[in-house]
Amino acid sequence: MTLLSAALSTARIADFSPGGGVAAGASAREFDDTSWLDVRLPADVHTALVDAGRLVEPYADAGESEVAWVARREWWYRCPIPAPEAAPAPDERVRLILHGLDTEAEIWVNGVPVGAHHSMFRPAEFDVTDLLDVGGDNVLAIRFAPIVGDEDVSDVSVRDTLRVRRRKMQVGFGWDISCYLLTVGVWQPIEVRRERVARLGPLSFATVDLDPDGDRAVVKIGARVDAFAADPARLRVHYRLTGPDGTLAGEGPLTGEGRSAGEGPLAPSAYLVVDRPALWWTHDLGQPDLYRLTVSLTGVDGEVVDVRESRVGIRTIALDQSPDQHEPGSRFFRFVLNGQPIYARGANWVPDDLRIARVEPRTYRERLAQAAAANMNMIRIWGGGIYEKDAFYEACDELGLLIWHDFMFACLAYPDDPEFLAECEAEARYQVARLQARPSLALWCGNNEAQGAGDSLALFAEVLPRAVAEEDGRTPYWPGSPYGGNGYASTYDGDTHDWRGFHGTHSAPFGAEGWQDPSGPGRHWHQYAEDVGRFVSEFGFAAPSTLATIEHWNSPAHRDPRAHAWQDRIRYVQGDAHMPLLETITGVPRDAREWVDYIQLIQAEGLRFGIERFRERKPHCSGALLWQLNDCWPGFTWSIVDFDGRPKPAYYAVRRAFSPVLATVKPMRGGAFELWLINDSGSRVDDVITLQVMRLDGTVLRQEEFPACAEPHAEARLLRRFGWGRVIQPRSCYVSISSARGTVPASRQLFADFRQLELPEAELTVARRGVAPGVVELDITASAFVPMVAVEHPHLDLAYDDNYFALDPGVTRTVRVRHAGDRLDPAELSVRALYT
Ligand code: BMA
Questions:
Q1: Is the CB–ligand 1 distance for residue 160 below 6 Å?
Q2: Protein residue closest via CA to atom 12 of ligand 1
Q3: Cα–Cα distance, 330 to 469 (Å, whole number)
Q4: Are 739 and 708 contacting, i.e. CB atoms less than 8 angstroms apart?
Q5: 666: helix, coil or strand?
Q6: Would you say the CB of residue 102 lies under 6 angstroms from ligand 1?
Q7: Which protein residue's CA is at the shortest distance from atom 8 of ligand 1?
Q8: How far is the CA of 156 from the centre of ligand 1 (A)?
Q9: How confident is the model over 671-694, as pLDDT tens digits?
Q10: Which of 93, 177, 104 is nearest to 132 (CA)?
Q11: Among 289, 308, 686, 737, which has the minimal tally of Cβ within 10 Å of its Cβ?
């Protein structure tokens, strides 16, 4: 048993001009730090100063520039270390583990320098056995070097130069999704561990074989053993694997080739056959069942000296890149879970706060539960952020969400000198070994957009794949995103970032020039209808936060779209302004409310249209991961859940479009259209679809019924092509589909942009009733077609089983609204047509 494992809970912090701290003797044990600021660990400097009222809130109004000075100072942390009760025995040692230092740090224990550390992406560890005084006041001192000198950080190329060699969260250097906020400090716990003879490192767990019918699995269980004061041959390692219901699935020794003392960790392992395993599935295909793996290490005297536990899952995951027979010259890019090819429906994850030290486990749970509730089965951890905290992976394991995990490199060509590569290798080996046993982990990906033809080959083609192969050996590796084929937007190989929508970016094969069409039509979502990639790992439309979140972070003087602090929330690149899209699609908004409504409507419709087109291409296109799920600051970005966790209208549109069973209407030229049926679920669909061509006033012009049958996990099926060009008057008609048994969700398709529609006056009728404490039902009916109805509450954050949906004339929609508390007055809920 680790004899003592204590997390350091408090520190005192202060800043100095560069070099001032050492000169002042701040590393010394006796240094008087009583005037310094007390903080609870972990804590970054910005949050500590804001909480102490010594710094403006960087996210409020335009606070960013007022806090930029922090990054130009050196910061010191001094932390008391609890004294060991007794002097360490000869076979004992005391390790200091600093799990997350942001970023360039020097460390002293009791005034003695123990080392330096240059990465926030892996822990710093030091043997301090001989440095701690029994019964004395032991002190840890950390100096964080200034990140910025006198560089002009308003220049993006200067910021790029500052970040390229730093193993630090890249997005904090400023991005089109983030303000410029360079955090510094202790972002993960600091631990002191007293250990005897040996200790366990990360456990490993892999499903090496699974019967096609899932009746029998073979798993490989392993552990790293660091035998620092014992003959490894005399240590015993034992495992126990218990099922989701607590029953014992297997136990026994882990064995491996002998090694002599001090030759570094052993890696004993064992194979186990599990009959009728409870498989781990994504939440939409089954149960994300988890086993408990316990490994104990017994010393030469038979005493248990260490125990580690992990929750693991029995599942196989593979990346199928076999040739696509139906599209010669192309190959699939699809994930295969437990032998079943799946369609990846999901989103990109960015750090949930630039001040990552303060992101709590419950926030991860909440955000990822929102993703699962939006019918997502995959989350991509984007390469401009961080390797997330344990709570993130626990939530994905438990919620049944797969993870596409980038290594933390984004949008730059990275160096390949030996020193930099060595640091990256250490980082990769640590993270890969740390996450190897996670059932949610589906893929390691080299980088985000950091690889033109031939860039950083050593890193992405050698160092990282070697780390994945040696520290994991089963999880697929992909060199970058996007990658494959002959360029960034290959439609026959690999993954693609489809930025024709919103950015108007048209990538070209390597060596040729891409081009950009910044016009409204050039950035329209219609671009998504053709040339779909094999796996679309980024696409999206930007929109402001919800009004409640804007009002949270913008004081009254700054709540007008023309106000500086409002515009300051937009960090898109040149040419990405909203006006061309507004002029083309909705018309120009008249006030702040309409500005938010119209752009959010465009985001919702753009994502819906893209997702439907990408899913109609199943299996030739086997994934759609939208940019982006969440926000790292209260900015206006591509997120569908804003910084305060409030879903934007697009969240509900995405949830509907990601429904495992879906029927879609693909508009073609000249009013023609196609009806498709998609079934990603594990159940057979057998229903009857009613398709209506209707005028916006509700007059039905044409109606037909179709059998809608699809096998489980079926390829997307074209049910019918309609040449009804003469029937469909784009400005006054739309197509609505519904199904007799409701297994195919109702949906509709317009044939003109919102501003072109000849929308009749629509009267909304709403019946309200409380159905339980905190639960209200609303029956909403419109006299004519309404593109988007919004159900809102002036101040409560509520759970809506649906919202921001279109309404067919005369058809009543019932919406259920829940309040986490048990009081919700039906009268307080408002219902409005968001676009008339
Ligand atoms: C891609 C992402 C991000 C960026 C987004 C929107 O490049 O990888 O870098 O925020 O597009 O522009």
A1: no
A2: 176
A3: 26
A4: yes
A5: strand
A6: no
A7: 448
A8: 15
A9: 899 999 999 999 999 999 999 999
A10: 93
A11: 686
- How far does residue 382's CA lie from ligand 1's centre (Å)? 9
The region of weakest confidence among 35-39, 64-68, 823-827 is: 823-827
Task: Please tell me the distance from the alpha carbon of residue 237 to that of residue 224, in angstroms, as a whole number.
Answer: 10
Rounded to whole angstroms, the Cα distance separating 70 from 88 reads 40
Q: What is the pTM of this model?
A: 0.97
For a mutational test of ligand 1's pocket, the pick from 412, 449, 502, i.e. the residue with the most ligand atoms closer than 8 A to its C-beta, is 449
> From CA 590, how far away is CA 583, in angstroms rounded?
12
* CA 574 to each of CA 562, 570, 571: distance values in angstroms, whole numbers, following the listed order: 18, 11, 9
Q: Are 274 and 255 in contact (CB under 8 A)?
A: no
The residue nearest atom 7 of ligand 1, judged by CA position, is: 449
Cβ contacts of 409 within 8 Å, gap of 6 or more: 170, 383, 446, 447, 448, 450, 456, 459, 460
Q: What is the atom index within ligand 1 of the atom nearest the CA of 576?
A: 12
Q: How far apart are CA 54 and CA 34, in angstroms?
A: 17
For residue 522, report the distance from its CA to the centre of ligand 1, in Å.
18
Distance (Å, whole) CA 744 – CA 741? 8
Check residue 302 and give left, alpha or beta (phi > 0: left; psi -120 to 50: alpha). left
Regarding the beta carbon of 75 and ligand 1, being less than 6 Å apart is answered no
- Give the distance (Å) from ligand 1 centre to CA of residue 175: 8
Q: How high is the pLDDT of residue 260?
A: 46
| Residue-wise pLDDT tens digits, 324-375 | 999 999 999 999 999 999 999 999 999 999 999 999 999 999 999 999 999 9
Which residue has the CA at smallest separation from atom 6 of ligand 1?
176
d(CA 173, ligand 1 centre) in Å? 14
Q: Is 449 in the pocket of ligand 1 (CB under 6 A)?
A: yes
- Give the helix/strand (H/E) hosting 830: strand 830-833
Is ligand 1 within 6 A of the CB of residue 572?
no
Contact call for residues 720 and 675 (beta carbons, < 8 A)? yes
Q: φ and ψ at 289, to 5 degrees?
A: -65, 140
Determine contact, residues 544/646, Cβ cutoff 8 Å: no
Q: 185: burial class by Cβ within 10 Å (0-12, 13-18, 19+)?
A: buried
φ, ψ of residue 789 to 5 degrees: the values are: -105, 135
How close is the Cα of 133 to the center of ligand 1, in Å? Answer: 51
The total number of residues shown for the chain amounts to 836
567: tokens are 């515009």
Nearest-atom index, ligand 1, CA of 175: 10
Residue 635 phi, psi (nearest 5) = -95, 175
